[in-house]
């Protein structure tokens, strides 16, 4: 009776997965990415690597070799640097305001 129950649950309906209306792409670009992953052995590098210089590739390799802790430390360092640059920019903008170098010339 268990086999009868299982066979009663089987559906022989054919679903047309080619239809974009029935099976829309939920995340844009996923199908293109999946297609590019199916053929991993290609002579040309991916599109995003075309504009990278050798320095960029070396940095990617360096960052890829870091442990999670080291990578987090690197990210915190970048956040601190961005904060310091923001403070410096704020000081320079204030300085420019006081020196009236940011004023528009009067016509």
From TrEMBL:
Family designation: Belongs to the lin-52 family.
Name of the featured protein: Protein lin-52 homolog
Pfam families per record: LIN52 (PF10044)
GO BP annotations listed: regulation of DNA-templated transcription
InterPro entries xrefs: DREAM_LIN52
Taxon lineage: Eukaryota, Metazoa, Chordata, Craniata, Vertebrata
GO CC term, one of those recorded: DRM complex
